[in-house]
Records
---
Amino acid sequence: MASSDRVRVRFAPSPTGHLHIGGLRTALYNYLFARKHGGDFLLRIEDTDQSRYVETAEDDIMDALQWTGLTYDEGPDVGGEHAPYRQSKRADLYRSYAEKLVEAGAAYYAFDTEEDLAALRDEGVTYDLHTRHQMRNSITMSDDQVQDRLDAGADYVIRLKVPERETVRFEDEIRGAVSFDSDEIDDQVLLKSDGLPTYHLANIVDDHLMEISHVIRGEEWLSSTPKHVLMYEALGWTPPTFAHLPLIMSPNGGKLSKRDANTLGIPVYVTDYQEEGYEPEGLVNYLALLGWNPGTEEELFALDDMVEAFSLERVGASGVQFDLDKLRWVNEHYVRALSVEALVDRVRPYVEDAGYSASDDRLHEICELVQERVQVVPEIVTDNRYFFEDPDEYEEAGVEKRWKDASADLLSTYADRLESVEEEDFDADTVETELRNLADEEDVGAGAIIHPARLAVSGRSYGPGVFGLLATVGKQACIRRMRRAVETLG
RNA sequence: GCCGCGUUCGUCUAGCCUGGUCCAGGACGCCGGCUUUUCACGCCGGUAACACGGGUUCAAAUCCCGUACGCGGUACCA
């Protein structure tokens, strides 16, 4: 038995699909809290809803945690003292506690049909202490009738028997004192007719048995917490400390949904961030800041430093809007921190996916040039296609502003000069010298050639330093593109 | 509808518990300048908020009450 004051927290996702970004943040805060206090962080799979179960989801969750570096001490794949860590494997356990609650007078059997329940719902009322007397259950039926039904193998559920006129109070680490009037709490189903528990039962049984000290979860659970408290009390258990995290919302308001992924370009699943080339450290760093702050003006944290700085007291209570710009800003710092070699490895798959090819040396050159100019790795490709193929059009505003009457002649002459440069001498210094010499001879500013050259070679008016750009694009391509621009733009 | 939770710049937030140091600080974004005879990076500067109404107090972003608004819950889903 671990000592009761040891910090033990869990991330308890339901395997219903890809791990949501909000789920990852919940996992992160649990992880930070556990590590900060030298405690344990466990992963528990809450697969008690067979109809929503998705085969691949469990792996997806574990992959996401691994990708982001949120290592857990106990879980379905790593085992632990309290195994199994999949609720579907613990079904008998929950049933026995449900029966214990019935014996304690805190729960009861119910035999209502779908129709009965639908009728109740149609009246706009819930199954609770006001309506339970008109339903078919062990409160309204005689013991013999109940026993007969059970013996006959009839379908039944076990419901929580919420006490009357009680105020259920608990202390939330983030919100302070929270209280609910028991008259407002419904008689939650604890054990379903398929024999599996609902979240509410499974959650408190496991949290108790697994010696969880702090339940850190999303705010959507706040309203069910009084039910949980009632169960802890009925079983004579000490409830864990609760902390309900603010929800992550869409910039439009409301929950961050799949729809936002499309309309606002905000990915909602962890796998999406992975595919879109975000740095896991950057994502985690940003997520930590979404609802928590260190109390200093620091914003960029490695995971270990976050652990050091983390505390639940500094987690806000209000909902937070996801800000993609800020994530990108955080991410860019992690892109810059990469060695050029690492960046080459990171970007290669995106280069290949785009159907381009480039040697390591060439990619190295490109990365050096653009590392400080991208926020997310794939932008090295998507924002700089001219490294891989000739531009097929010229940015209109750039042409407007930079392509002058004399541009064609100057660029044409510049191309001529570059023709005579040996392939192996075609580096940034040489193309710069050639350009500046020409500018002097023609008595024009260097910009009179720089701008048209950039436009011709990259199709755009902005990008990395133009001489490095020309050198990296290469002699033949530069000349070809310059001649073509002279032709096209006149 | 009912219940719960929340409300400081467009956004993330500091400050609120322990009222005065806050005509409210930082960051992202945006705008401008410097730098670069190019683009960016960088640096400098600017923009912009205490939801509203009462109350308590010599004094309120900070305490109390109410209203509005937002979010969550209201399933044999989690």
---
Amino acid sequence: MAVTMRDVANAAGVSPMTVSNVLRDVPTVDEELRARVLRAVDELGYELSLTARQLRSGRSGLVTVIGLDINDPYFSALASSLAAGFASEGIHCVIEQSRFNPGGERGALTGAHLKRFDGVVLSSVGLSYEQMDSLDVNLPLVIMGEHEAPPRFDHIMMANIDGSRQAVEHLLASGCRRVMMLGGSETTTTHGMAEARTAGWRQAHSEAGLVADEALVIPTPHYTPTEARTLVAEHLRVDRSIDGIFAVADAIAIGALAGARDVHREVPTELQVVGFDNLAIDTLLNPALSSVDPGMDWMSQMAVRLLRDRIASHGAEHESEHLVSPARLVVRESSGRSEA
Amino acid sequence: MAVTMRDVANAAGVSPMTVSNVLRDVPTVDEELRARVLRAVDELGYELSLTARQLRSGRSGLVTVIGLDINDPYFSALASSLAAGFASEGIHCVIEQSRFNPGGERGALTGAHLKRFDGVVLSSVGLSYEQMDSLDVNLPLVIMGEHEAPPRFDHIMMANIDGSRQAVEHLLASGCRRVMMLGGSETTTTHGMAEARTAGWRQAHSEAGLVADEALVIPTPHYTPTEARTLVAEHLRVDRSIDGIFAVADAIAIGALAGARDVHREVPTELQVVGFDNLAIDTLLNPALSSVDPGMDWMSQMAVRLLRDRIASHGAEHESEHLVSPARLVVRESSGRSEA
DNA sequence: TTGAAAGCGCTAACAA
DNA sequence: TTGTTAGCGCTTTCAA
């Protein structure tokens, strides 16, 4: 019923192979035949079956970017940046959520589903080390993440500890003495993002000759702004000594700013706040949010290159690469009161 | 090289057809054979080729959601909502950007690419009527959009004019007399989103017995917060009579809040601001942003049902559906000063 | 209830 | 430079 390559071939008076060669820009095709083929394509309204091409050639020309939740501003910024990078390499990419689509039956992380693509970029947020380790995919896979991943995978991460250290060092230098570690984790066993950033918080304290009060580590189980808002308001009400907040993510920091407002603590005069991610919205907030810039553009550029090369070398053996993007603190209105 | 259905069939001592039946949950398979097949699948680590299945059956089990830019907070909220809806129907969906991937050669909107999917949800933002009209796809397609779309497509839109009218009516009732129409459009010929929302602005004025000053319609060519911020600051500096801003989208309104701050205009006492979209972040802003709620969850629910039914009825003829979601104003801190 | 044959639409490999 | 042959891995159809 649909027009096939054979129909085009018949209309143009050539073999299907020649049509295929024209459509794949194989350079050895005679100019006149090429013209005849393209005319027939046009007249018949032919559209290539990419499914059939993929079955035969093993290539889909498609890459997928998988993250927990597209509505998370960090992931949507990352996905957008990756999409721009892939587009400039002529690679088409789609974006998927692992939320609602876990490894289960028809999920985004199953081998059967992933085989539709030539490569995968996986944001590790929300995935445990074990979940990643159990992935048994046979295609190029780059993990982008805030925390440790199994060493056999290519992995691009940010300087969690150093970035956090910079942020808290800045808060301490700006006069804070009681800095809440919002979204932090007290456990030091695993290598998650929250743990690493909490380690930076501790490190900054000890480098300043201060003792970090572990009671100031406040986990945010769901990592939502609303949850952070409530938690911050509660803690600020009870403990008026808190004079700084370092949040593990800007989404959390934005909630913290709202929570501080709820209990009438003025930022930055009474309370200083620093986040992590350097989202575009930070400059628009009132007060503008100080944040650690994780170097997202650099990371997505690296991810695109790495995946492009892995795909091009078609499964050749390789050492896995592990890159770390340097972090850089950006001070805005929410912190940096200069007096002590 | 990869394990195929035939390998599984051989290992289980059955025909490939039986393996296929087991994997598709065809109920007429003997329990013992089913068990043998599943054991063989497990032992061999077999993974179905969804590509081959699609080539043969014509179904991919996949739907795509296409929007201009995932980094836009409205689209990412919409996509997330749609993904949740599709997941609850057992349909897997991917998300694509039309930005960087236009109709060109290998774009997201080409027929060849779209044929990979069983259905499409297309956000019309950033697409002209003509671009949509030139789409010649043969699969279920639902357009979700703020503006008019060709009548042959199923279309779910929001009550642009009424929502805007409510917003501006509220501003006028709250004492505003010079309400900037930010992101509006002076042309009344086309049926775009900006035009419809500007029409609501005019309507509210005439219903209040006032004359809308067309000089207060300020277009934002790129629809970015930063651009809006600059424009608002410039206009407020020049024209101190402006006492209200209605922005066509919350992203724009957020920029407007920042711009007002840049020129030290206090919201809501000196200037009231209302946006459109009711994004989750609105409640976290300082001041919290009043906004028109377009009923996104309702719209995405409708889109999911409609597409699911279109897919199930496999190309049967149908009247196209056109649904409009009612809009509802949510007043927060940025507007609603009660004195006149 | 299970299996054999055929072919979805394309391209790799080879032959002309 | 073009064409022929074969088959990617599955499911539709029909026979057993």
